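User: Sequence in, structure out. Go.
Assistant: Echoing your sequence, followed by the C-alpha cells.
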Amino acid sequence: MLLEGIFAPITTPFYSDERIYFKKLEFNVSRLSLTALAGLVVLGSTGEAVALDDAETREVLRVAAQSADQEKVLIAGTGRESVKATVDLAEAAAGFGYDAVLVRNPCYYRPQLTPAAVLHYFRTVADRSPLPVILYSIPKFTQAEIPLEVVAELAQHANIIGLKESSGSVERVREVVQATRLAPRRTVTVTPIFEAVTGRMMSAKPAAAGNFISAEGLASGAGGGVALAVAPPVPGRKTRTREVGFQVLTGSASNLKESLDAGASGAILAFAACAPQACQEIYTAWKEHDDRLAIDKQQRIAEAGNLVAGKLGIAGIKYACDFNGYFGGRPRAPLLPLTSEVKAEVERLLAQIRN
C-alpha cells in the first residue's frame, strides 16, 4: 500500500461526563474527508487511544470507518502492551474495513524490552495481523525509541510497510531511510496520477447521498449510529502499479519539508487534525518542487504548530479543533483543559490559519 502525502490523526470528542460523543466524531471524520489529505489515522496518540477501554476502542474504530470517505487511506492505531491485545484490535480493524494498522512499541516493562524483545513483538504482530503494519516510534511518550537496527530488520518483513517516526529529528528520518534502503520492493496499486488505491477503496459500494450531518444537527440526539454519506466509487476505476520500498512518515510539522527532503514519503501530523489545509500546502509545494513556497508555508505554521501540537499536546490540539470548526472539546482526565489565557494565545496564532 502506498503511504504518501499528509495524514491527520483525528481526535476523540467526549461529552462533559467523558462519554464518547460519536456524532461529533462522525462530523470530524466526514469534514476531514472533504480535504486533500491522503488519509486519516484513528486512535493514534492524538486520539487519546491510551485513555479508552477495549470496548470504546472498537466502537470508535467502527464509527470512524463508517464515516470516512472511501477515497481516504484509513489507518487504525492498535498498539497495546501485548502481542495478543494488539492482534485482537488489528483483527477488529480489518473487520471494519481499515487499510493498515499503526503499532507503537510496548514500553511498560522497559527494563526487559530489549531490542530482541521489541523485534519479536513486532514480528509476531506482523505475522498474525490481517492488515499491513506501520511501526510507530514516539519516544517522548514511550521513553524508548525503536532501535535503528530493529527497524532495519523489520523492514524485511512482508507485512511491515513503513514507520511513523515521531522523534522530531530530521537526522533520524534520514538514518531510517538509509538503513531500510535495501528493504524488499513491493508492487502497490495506485491511481493513474499515482495516488493510493487500497482494497477498501476497490471494494467500496455506492452510498446514498444526503446524509451529511451539519454541526447544527448535533444539537439533537445524543448517541452515534448515524452513518455519513460518502461519494460513490467511480465505475470501472482505472489503476496502475508502482514499486515502493519501506516508507517513512514523519510526525513533525515543524520540519516537514526537511524530512521530505531526507526521504520521508509523507507525514502523520497532529497539527493536521485542526489545520489540514495548512499542512497539505507544505506537502503540495514540496511535491511540485517549489522549495521557496514550501519553506514559506512551513514558516507560516511554525509558531502555532510548535505551541499547539508540541507544547500543549492533546488539550491544545482539541481547542485548536474547536477554533477551526471541528469538534475538539476537553481531553479525558487526568489531562487538563487549557486556561483562558492559553486559549487566547492559541486563537492569536491560529487567526491566519483558518481551515
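User: And one key feature?
Assistant: The longest strand covers residues 160-165.
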